[in-house]
Specification:
By secondary structure, the chain is mostly beta strands. The chain has 2 helices and 9 strands, in the order βββββαβββαβ. The protein has a 5-stranded mixed beta barrel.
């Protein structure tokens, strides 16, 4: 059955209401595709109002911000070291916000939602830094 955000047919008491209309296309929920480390693969998706959204499937590079020099540098993503949202994501090299990633310039923390924005923004990881606020 397709996932949807259409109004529910259940009452608070547990009974069913009558069906007044069918599901609309704009109420359908898109698939959640996890972003992995690998060769660059990007998909464009049409959204409401004719706009488009860039969805990353795989990325090999990211933009790392160094707070000491106050500059962004392009780095190569090697592997996911730790992912607090799901332990198996680190094993499968899936990147989400808050994941610790090993790059060619050391470890870094992902600060954006890369599956939604189409790119990875990183902050240089410091050993004394436990977690981001």
């Amino acid at each position: 059955m397709a996932k949807s955000t259409a109004p529910t047919l259940k009452k608070r008491t547990g009974g069913f209401k009558g069906k007044l209309r069918d599901k609309r296309k704009y109420e359908s929920v898109g698939l959640s595709v996890p972003l992995q480390v690998g060769e660059k693969r990007i998909k464009s998706e049409r959204t409401l109002g004719g706009n488009s959204k860039v969805i990353s499937l795989q990325l090999k590079e990211g933009n790392m911000y160094d707070s000491d020099s106050k500059k962004f540098t392009k780095v190569e993503l090697l592997r996911v070291v730790e992912n607090k949202s799901n332990r198996s994501y680190a094993r499968r090299n899936i990147i989400t916000k808050g994941a610790v990633v090993e790059t060619n310039q050391g470890k870094a923390v992902v600060t954006n939602r890369p599956g939604k924005s189409g790119q990875v923004t990183l902050l240089k990881f410091k050993p004394e830094q436990k977690e981001l606020k």
